[in-house]
Amino acid sequence: MKETSTYKDFLDKFKMIIDLDEKEKAILESFRFRDEDLSQKSGAILAFSGLMIATSTVQLSSSPASIIYVNPESFMMLVNKIGLIVLFISAFISLRGMTLSSKYSNKKEEALPKFGQHVSIRANFVKYAVLVAAFGALLILASFFYSLFFNIF
């Protein structure tokens, strides 16, 4: 039976993990847990951006009789549209961070630093996605609360 390169790579990586000492295994576990944590955070940011995008589109499509109506010629309409674009950018950054992958060597001297670099890059994507999402959400909320305040009073 002929071995495929995928099966051989898997066996080589498995042997590499078995050959790690306790300190290296602890480092690998730390990287792995951090990587999983960053994946979950990216998913949460993506979901939050989607919710805020939905909020924005509801406000943009509201009728003049609605309590959340924004006049199309007003400054707040521009603020809402900018917030919408910023949230799309945040969603893209978050999605890019979630789908980030790397090919690792079968040598532990090369694989552990490469995995650490991968986790660091993913952490940067999450950090930028949070900052951009927060800015976009502030713009959307400013438009939303402005329309609520001035349409009620």
Question: What does this protein structure show overall?
Answer:
The protein is mainly alpha-helical. The chain is built from four helices and no strands. The protein has helices at residues 5-18, 22-60, 75-99, 108-152. Helix 2 packs parallel to helix 4 and helix 3 (75-99) packs antiparallel against helix 4. The longest helix is centred in the C-terminal third of the chain and has 45 residues, at 108-152. The model has no long low-confidence stretch (mean pLDDT 86).
Spell out the blueprint of helices and strands.
Elements: H1 5-18, H2 22-60, H3 75-99, H4 108-152
In short:
This protein has 153 residues and is mainly alpha-helical. The chain has helices spanning 5-18, 22-60, 75-99, 108-152. The chain is 80% helix and 0% strand.
| Averaged pLDDT | 86
Q: How big is the Rg?
A: 23 Å
Fraction of residues in helices?
over 70%
Shape: rod-shaped
Uncertain spans: none
Please give the largest β-sheet: none
Percent strand: under 5%
- From the helix content, strand content and strand pairing, which structural class follows? mainly alpha
Task: Give the end-to-end Cα distance, rounded to a whole number of Å.
Answer: 79 Å
The string of secondary-structure elements, in order, is: HHHH
Give the number of helices: 4
For the secondary structure, the number of strands is 0
Count of spatially separate domains: 1
